[in-house]
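ugh ok so i messed up the first submission bc i forgot one of the chains. this is the corrected input, ALL of the components this time, i swear. 647 residues overall. if the numbers dont match what u have on ur side tell me asap before i send this to the collaborators (the ones from the other lab, u know who)
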Amino acid sequence: MRNVAVHLAVGAPATVRLDRAGRTARLVLAGDWLVGEAARMDEALRALDTAAVNELVIDASKIGRLDSAGAWLILRTRHLLESKNVRVADVLLPQNFRPLYQRLESEALAPAAGFHRRRSFADFLERTGRGTMHIFHQTYELVGFLGRITVETWEAILSPGHELPWPAFIQQIEETGLTALPIVGMLAFLLGIVLAYQGADQLKRFNAEIYTIDFLGVGFLRELGGLVTAIIVAGRSGSAFTAHIGTMRVNEETDAMETIGLNIAEILVLPRVLALIVSLFFLTFYADVVGIIGGMVMTYFDLGITFPAFMRELEGAITLRTLLVGLIKAPVFAFVIALVGCFEGLRVERNAGSVGRLTTRSVVESIFLIIALDAAFSVLFSVLGV
Amino acid sequence: MSAEGARDQEPVIQIRQLVNAFGDSIVHDHLDLDVYRGEVLGVVGGSGAGKSVLLRSIIGLNRPVAGSIKVFGQETAKDDSEDLHGLQLRWGVLFQEGALFSSQTVAQNIQVPMRRWTPMREELMDQLAAMKLALVGLPADSGAKLPSEISGGMKKRAGLARALALDPELLFLDEPTSGLDPISAAQFDDLVRSLKQSLGLTVFLVTHDLDTLRATCDRIAVLVNRKVKLGTIDTLSRDPDPWIHEYFCGPRGRAALTEHA
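and heres the new structure output, hopefully the right one now
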């Protein structure tokens, strides 16, 4: 912080002097009584010793400048003295400052209290409780939303004369799929390199570095490719869904749609859900391929395995089923991401802060659900013996 | 203070040959404007006429293409302008929606400038915040509330209290009555007028509201055709410019002006 005194400089410093004459006294104020001097004058007025004085005149007639902070200090001093049973006979002020003083005098000044919010342990407990209940409530509402969307989607599909919003669908495919190619490809490639490097490092100790390829193929195709792609898409498209629909809520666009008789589920939610299911499926496949290529490059430089040798080993390690087990999860993840994104977007209230809060929540929730579902799939597949 | 009497003084704000442009569209074309000490200058103009851009240029939030803007004699619009801290203590700005910091209570909002610039004790700052609340006509208990818990009109008053925290000499108000009901708007006009009298403020007021213009402003600057036209309601209503004529003599303008004539 800069030197405060330089910036709030005053022409003539404010002064306080108490002239006693027996039981009466004169409180002489002079100089510039401005906000820059308020802290100093606050101390000076507090330190005032008015013992044995029972009548006093506040003489501020020599004051050069006065602002509301200064005027308020004079007024406070007067109230303080009166509360100590000192009669304040008069407050002398230059003519031009009287309106300001009188204005403050006329305001009923309530005590300043409770201006600062402090967080206590009880508050913490209360928030924890609220948060826990909120989770249950949230789950309940999300399931309700799933039901509503399903019903309205079927109605939209089955009712005659209704055409699915294809332009919106195509646009969403582009936004969620095509434009995600660079980031998904980059990350998958890097992840392939990391996996191959770590795998090779460990397996070298058993002279089994050729199995790096098996490890890479199975690990990436079954689990990591799909998981990482879903997490990126949740952060990228899930948040975009919430932010976009949320902004529409703030602008009352969704309300306008409803009054015109448009079906929000059909126009806003359905194209996004369908588009993301398609996009994420292909993005996952793409990530699988690029990730394997990343691993292939790494094993070539680290272990000296040529590309044809890599492909031969990979062919022995994985089957079509390995790939499909990974890919089958993508539509489920996509459905969850799109549903949560739209759900939170439609819950946005009519203020801008709510958009940010719910966007964050949408991403956290969908990533949590993706990982939880992935774990559930693992259990399911092992029970089924896939 | 009459407009004529003010002319002799050094202007508080002096704008010379100001040019603002965004891409190809020119907002201000070599615009000149003076604001004198102790006056309330109302700035009007159609949507997109550059009222807010003008205000933002003066307070240093928007760098103009060319021209000079001096506030209290200090340049605010040049790349090499020294830091504006000295000026920031002498002016207060009320943004359109109040621009209160959402994570802090109303009283804490008012104390932000005090905390930044003065060594005052907490207790004194609380007392001053309560005084400012009373000054702008807010109930004392609103100080403990968060901005999200108060109405739009109260937010504007709270924003005004924050703008007044360090007792500035110059006050910028950006559409202070937009979005308020007519009664609140009229109360806000009264507030501005009485604060100007008791605190000796100079006010730069951007507005659409004819009632506000009539109730509070000493002079009016109309932004039209990328230039500014100065006058009072009387002189401007005789102006030949079609937009100005329509503004002051259209149905709404006439209603606002004749009602109180």
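quick check: The radius of gyration of chain B is 18 Å. that seems consistent at least. Strands of chain B lie at 11-22, 25-36, 40-45, 66-71, 74-75, 91-94, 170-174, 202-206, 219-224, 227-231.
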